[in-house]
């Protein structure tokens, strides 16, 4: 006899199946979904996990890296990455996002040719397993498209089942004017198949052919792939480019209801899995669209805080937190069981779409002009009217902090560390791109060699040289890694920095970004203050609710605060975490 919880699972699953595939027998497809996700006699939990704040703590943080960001010409890159993580990152982060580590043909891994294999140039599954033993592992589910040179698309070209129905086709004469996409290349690509000429949909490039999720066999195959990754130690599934998953001609083909329903279906399966699996959606879009992927606590467990990179960069470039503060004030707390993933840099550029409606065009223009001054680049996207607009800024974040709107100065190190400390302080889980942790400069040589703007931020370090720099306390690499590591180790001890701890945006001088954090049990308060300017700023103690009869400390410099004074001083780009508890 089935339990009420089991009945609830079955009922929710069949309801979602009917929403996505109304013309297919819901009970049969639901049974196939269960078999795909729980093969060989395994089965769902009796009870699904309820939304709560216990999936993460203040100790959680991620490093974002390619599998080959570190090389030495002798050892497997994944072995070198594991060595780096254990040697340099223990106690700093407890998770790692290894960007697509599968065989691929382009886009640095995001044109996957085989989801079931590890790229042999990086290593093999046992190397992935070793990393997952020591760190919480995130993998990419590149579910919108696959390589034009992989088995799936070759099977499509030859009209081989089941791949002959795996890809989204459209006709050039159909209405595609409203389609939203981040590229300027033609959307449709004509190909010759065994069934004659066809036009396939390519949201990103002509080597990345979009899949057709109207065919449930595509969904089932990806559920099997998720199971393979989970069985190999992956615990965070990043749904890459998920917003474009479901397509219909005559629409924008972004954020369609079926896309949200598929994310809900995946969340349901994860909540009933024996393993604790977190779903993270990658949707580099304006705020309201991004927030929609929390659903009603039934879609993503976590979403990227995509507005942070351009807004934090603007703040430290302009010396004003006005726009960052205004945006932060309007951000809702993450729903119960959900969290933001906070970052400033990733393998991609600094997206400008999430700044739309927040940063005036004149301020965006100043950012772009400044980035060009320091040797950075700008990538464009196509608009429905045939025009173009800035899509992202291409630069390492460390290089981007090399100067302000007023020009160069001697504060790059302080400015950069301030930008990363803001990420540590905000509600959510902090994540750091490896090239931010390593103060990597812009790699213009890679851009010239590879002919792609994003290569500027995808340097590959020679491991012996990197270790020599990290062992030299005067190098930028050592100074930055030491400073960020020290702050992250302090952060991990503060319950007020739990990803879901209370946050209130403080009304302060425009040059100071301040938030008040309070632990879930209300025992600890932290007033996190960040001077984003090259001026010394005085902050009134009256602007902070410093409870009487309790000592207050600056956690970052171990200084006790004299509460009889009227103000507290912030040097240029100084950050202060004022707390009533030291742990």
From TrEMBL:
Matches recorded under InterPro entries: GGa_phosphorylase (IPR033746), GH (IPR017853), GH13_cat_dom (IPR006047), Glyco_hydro_b (IPR013780), O16G_dom_2 (IPR045857), Sucrose_GGa_phosphorylase-rel (IPR016377)
Record's keyword terms, sorted: Glycosyltransferase, Transferase
Species assigned in the record: Falsihalocynthiibacter arcticus
Domain Glycosyl hydrolase family 13 catalytic: residue ranges: 60-450
Annotated SUPFAM superfamilies: (Trans)glycosidases
Transmembrane segments: none
Binding site for substrate: 107, 145, 238-240, 347-348, 454
GO BP terms: carbohydrate metabolic process
CDD domains named among the record's database cross-references: AmyAc_Sucrose_phosphorylase-like_1
Alphabetized GO MF terms: glycosyltransferase activity
Protein name: Alpha-amylase
């Amino acid at each position: 006899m089935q339990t009420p919880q089991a009945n609830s699972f079955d009922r929710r699953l069949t309801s979602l199946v009917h929403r996505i595939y109304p013309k297919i027998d819901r009970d049969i497809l639901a049974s196939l979904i269960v078999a795909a996700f729980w093969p060989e006699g395994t089965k769902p939990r009796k009870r699904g996990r309820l939304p709560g704040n216990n999936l993460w703590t203040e100790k959680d943080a991620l490093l974002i890296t390619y599998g080959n960001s570190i090389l030495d010409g002798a050892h497997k890159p994944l072995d070198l990455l594991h060595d780096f993580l254990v040697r340099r990152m223990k106690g700093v982060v407890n998770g790692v996002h290894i960007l697509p580590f599968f065989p691929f043909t382009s886009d640095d891994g995001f044109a996957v040719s085989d989801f079931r294999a590890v790229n042999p140039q990086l290593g093999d599954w046992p190397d992935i397993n070793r990393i997952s033993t020591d760190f919480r592992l995130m993998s990419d589910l590149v579910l919108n498209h696959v390589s034009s040179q992989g088995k799936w698309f070759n099977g499509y070209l030859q009209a081989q089942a089941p791949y002959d129905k795996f890809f989204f086709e459209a006709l050039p004469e159909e209405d595609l004017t409203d389609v939203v996409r981040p590229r300027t290349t033609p959307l449709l690509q004509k190909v010759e198949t065994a069934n004659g000429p066809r036009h396939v949909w390519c949201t990103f490039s002509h080597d990345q052919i979009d899949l057709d999720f109207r065919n449930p066999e595509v969904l089932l195959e990806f559920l099997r792939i998720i199971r393979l990754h989970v069985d190999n130690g992956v615990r965070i599934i990043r749904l890459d480019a998920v917003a474009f998953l479901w397509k219909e001609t005559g629409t924008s083909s972004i954020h369609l209801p079926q896309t949200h329903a598929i994310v809900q279906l995946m969340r349901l399966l994860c909540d009933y899995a024996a393993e604790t699996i977190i779903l993270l959606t990658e949707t580099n879009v304006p705020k309201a669209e991004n927030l929609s992927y929390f659903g009603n606590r039934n879609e993503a467990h976590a979403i990227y805080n995509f507005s942070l990179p351009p807004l934090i960069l603007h703040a430290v470039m302009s010396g004003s937190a006005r726009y960052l503060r205004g945006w932060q004030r309007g951000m809702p707390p993450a729903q119960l069981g959900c969290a933001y993933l906070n970052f400033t840099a990733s393998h991609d550029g600094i997206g400008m779409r999430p700044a739309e409606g927040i940063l005036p065009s004149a301020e965006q223009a100043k950012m772009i002009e400044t980035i060009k001054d320091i040797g950075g680049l700008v990538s464009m996207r196509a608009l429905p009217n045939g025009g173009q607009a800035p899509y992202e800024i291409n630069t390492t974040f460390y290089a981007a902090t090399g100067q302000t709107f007023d020009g160069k100065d001697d504060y790059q190190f302080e400015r950069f560390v301030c930008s990363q400390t803001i990420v540590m302080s905000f509600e959510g889980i902090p994540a750091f791109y490896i090239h931010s942790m390593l103060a990597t400069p812009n790699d213009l040589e890679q851009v010239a060699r590879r002919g792609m703007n994003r290569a500027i931020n995808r340097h590959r370090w020679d491991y012996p040289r990197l270790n020599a720099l990290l062992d030299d306390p005067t190098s930028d690499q050592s100074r930055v890694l030491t400073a960020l590591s020290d702050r992250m180790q302090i952060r991990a001890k503060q319950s007020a920095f739990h990803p879901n701890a209370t946050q209130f945006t403080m009304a302060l001088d425009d040059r100071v970004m301040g938030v008040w954090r309070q632990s879930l049990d209300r025992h600890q308060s932290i007033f996190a203050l960040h001077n984003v300017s090259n001026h010394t700023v005085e902050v009134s103690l009256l602007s902070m609710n410093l409870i009487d009869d309790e000592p207050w400390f600056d956690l970052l410099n171990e200084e006790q605060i004299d509460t009889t004074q009227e103000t507290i001083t912030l040097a240029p780009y100084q950050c202060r975490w004022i707390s009533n508890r030291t742990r």
